[in-house]
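Running this now, will post back.
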Amino acid sequence: MTNTQSTAALNHEMGDDLQEIEVQESEIIADIINNVTAHPRADHAHLVRVVEALLFASSEPLGLETLIECLPEGNDIEAVIETLQQQYADRGVNLVKIADKWTFRTAEDLSFLLRREAVEQKRLSKAALETIAIIAYHQPVTRAEIEEIRGVSISKGTLDILLEMGWAKMRGRRRTPGRPVTYGTTEEFLEHFGLANISDLPGLSELKGAGLLSSNLPSGFTIPMPRDEDDLGPDEMALDEDDEQPPLEMHLPDLSKDDDEDE
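Update: finished.
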């Protein structure tokens, strides 16, 4: 037998062996599927472990869509999340929902153990805090509307800081003359303050209880209900493709008032 004939025979035998291995693997997979169908509890427990590992390994919260992509089709991901949440309810870390995504966080009653003093490199100005609060409660809101609510003008740098921090974003443009940009909050804002959605912001009674509002408020005083959706409203239009940077807005100085940023 020549070398060529020997090589051909060897390749033929190897091909047969590979086909046998593939058949065996298919049979093993079929057996696993049958076992999973016959033992749904074991399958559910395995899925819980898979989701647990994914959440621990991720550096950021994961949404249900992302988790579903990592699991076999036809599984009840909400039931898996519920089981995992119950398992960690009394542990040092809890499974919590942040901005419609899931992540592990230190239990609230143990957070003081992990607290450490650190040098605060930068603090938000009073104007920036007031601005982000107005954006959160009144979104979508324009710069002119923010200034009207605050009663004083704001410098361009205030909005730039909030945009750079990722707490605020440009949503769209108002359907009014000049098409001013509308601003709203981001997922980073929700994650920083531990909110599942923007509607979880404290209401009037909660702010009073925390001492953040005076007990002698004007009659009819109300707090707007934050809008919990990213879709543009009927009075908004989409941003242009070149609206990647905050627009240059010009404001005449109001000599009768001093911007509290300079205080």
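Strands lie at 93-98, 101-106, 141-142, 168-174, 181-185, 236-237. More later if anyone needs it.
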